[in-house]
């Protein structure tokens, strides 16, 4: 039987795989959970097998799903680039975008090239800063759009890209037991993970000390991998030279979101960039 892959079905599958939950994918795509299930079932029929393993909490990819996901991402990018080539030259504008340092390499390296190729007459200006600083910049009208991290459900004005449970990480060569005070590699002031580390350890009665205080995610990573300190990190960003520390307090869930300034009229360029980041952002 000849079958044709539907772009909408692939988009749904890609979103479910990225978000990790049917409910979040439904909210993200503005569809009902039932519609999301139907899309996945139709795609599984075409693929000839199960793409996702489901439980009450989340979904995970099967081996077939992992193979399809890699091809689906390439196909979606090609589709969007072709659509951009058809309509892109007609959109003119500018966007001031802010994001934390830890997501800059992914967004700048993987997402913005696709966007600029599709919409060549949109001028981008990118700023990196801690998440809470970016919120201030939005309030002050210095940004058109910001990608940031915040505690879950911290603001109703946010468009959720994905949810994350940050984990404590240390070097693979750190001693098995951390002695107090806990050595910390702290993110810059105004970072939610910095506040979460300090408040959680303080509440648990664990003394701590600062080994590194830096706005650079690369410096934080180097400090942890060298065995000098522990820090808080998205689970998906844990490197091969790190281990997750289960002997420190459990952290609350956070989410990665897109936020626009309050009471500012949107424009087509901003909406197009939002769509691109929604489609391609991954932890």
UniProtKB/TrEMBL annotation:
Keywords assigned: DNA-binding, Transcription, Transcription regulation
Pfam family, one: HTH_1
Membrane-spanning parts: none
InterPro entries recorded: LTTR, LysR_HTH_N, LysR_subst-bd, WH-like_DNA-bd_sf, WH_DNA-bd_sf
Transferase recorded as keyword: no
One Gene Ontology MF term: DNA-binding transcription factor activity
Annotated HTH lysR-type domain residues: 5-62
Family: Belongs to the LysR transcriptional regulatory family.
Name used for this protein in its record: LysR family transcriptional regulator
Annotated gene: gltC_4
